[in-house]
Amino acid sequence: MLTEVTVFWIFCFSRVNSLPGFTTQNYNTDLDKCGKVHLTVSSLEETYLELNWVTKCDSMYDMVPDEIALYDKNPLDRNEEMPPRVSVLARRYPEGYYKTKVKFGSPWLPGNWEYQENMIQAEHGQHCFPYWIASLKRDMLIDVQCLRINPTWMFDNSHRIGKKRIGSVIIPGTHNSGSSKTATFLQSYVMNQDRNVWTQLVFGIRYLDLRVGYYGREGFYINHDVVQLAPREIIVVDFHRFPYPSNFNANIHESLLKVLHYELHDLALYPSGLQIGSGPTFNEIWARNKSIIVCYNEKEVSAGHRWLWHPIEQFWGNKRDVGDLKDFLDTSIKQHKSVLNPLWALMAELTPQAFDVIFRTNNLRKLANNVNRHVTKWVRSEWSNSSVNIVATDYFLGNDVINVAIGNNIL
């Protein structure tokens, strides 16, 4: 299985790119506000844009939306006539979800964040794609949001999260982060992401779940592009599994650790004195001028490497049903107790079973499409006060966990 590690960041911020009518203050701290909207990208191969809105409208003061609309420009800019590209009546879709026929594809990343060899600068802050969703009551806008990247969200909100401990905030992550490309005929059952690691980080993912394969003379399947454009973004790199070869022995581990030491050591945060309680605060990490936490899930091998953190506990349900997964994760949240590592991960994805592969049903895209909208609601409505830490998903653009996590963390 091909695994790629693109180590984001060293330096270079240019000017702040202010978005018309949209700033970090647009993160609505009332995450469950009636009519609040967000855009997602279908986890299925068509990558259609999806309209999502909060349908919980209990208060007599709630402004229940009549219409949900998709625009090519910010509708807050009223300087010109702006007909919607797509418009639906909210009452016809009581679940607060509508899949459009507008394809997202793989557009150029805004703010100069498209990866290029020898790139030296990019613009920090949020940057919007030309897709805006709005909820409306008659002609009044209730909420407006764009589909956006958050490449420097930790730095952007350092004044709000600096005193918070890394084990007590919500960290958006991806499951099997490096499996965005494969040439096998079983790609629908082994590919968990459709964006490479660089793109995941640019969107705002901060936890990478990696599985490493060693292929003899071909070496380890790791891409190491050291381009650091956001030095205060803290990334958790979890080398969690070593699936190939089946006898991934101590010698192979040591060879891998030599590669990792060469590539990551200078940026790695040493765990000495930090793996207690809920871990260090962001300010404490920044004070050490380090940006990567490297966890290695082989304690006996990594014991002699003081720059490696203990393995991260992952709660993986191995479920193919949304309800069963929710029950498992709820139980995990209640039973979890940090011991060796203050970081821990809910693996919020569904897993195909053997008969799914045999009969070519419920592949990873379909399963992600089934669960991703629910994960957004769980994080936003039910887990926001549960000391949830890492939430890792498949096909992460199919949910809004990144933006919900940021909104929750800056409260």
From TrEMBL:
InterPro entries: PI-PLC_domain, PLC-like_Pdiesterase_TIM-brl. One of its GO terms (biological process) is lipid metabolic process. Gene3D superfamilies: Phosphatidylinositol (PI) phosphodiesterase (3.20.20.190). GO terms for molecular function: phosphoric diester hydrolase activity. Keywords: Signal. It comes from the Eukaryota. Residues 1-18 form the signal peptide. PANTHER family: PTHR13593, RE10370P (PTHR13593:SF103). This is Phosphatidylinositol-specific phospholipase C X domain-containing protein.
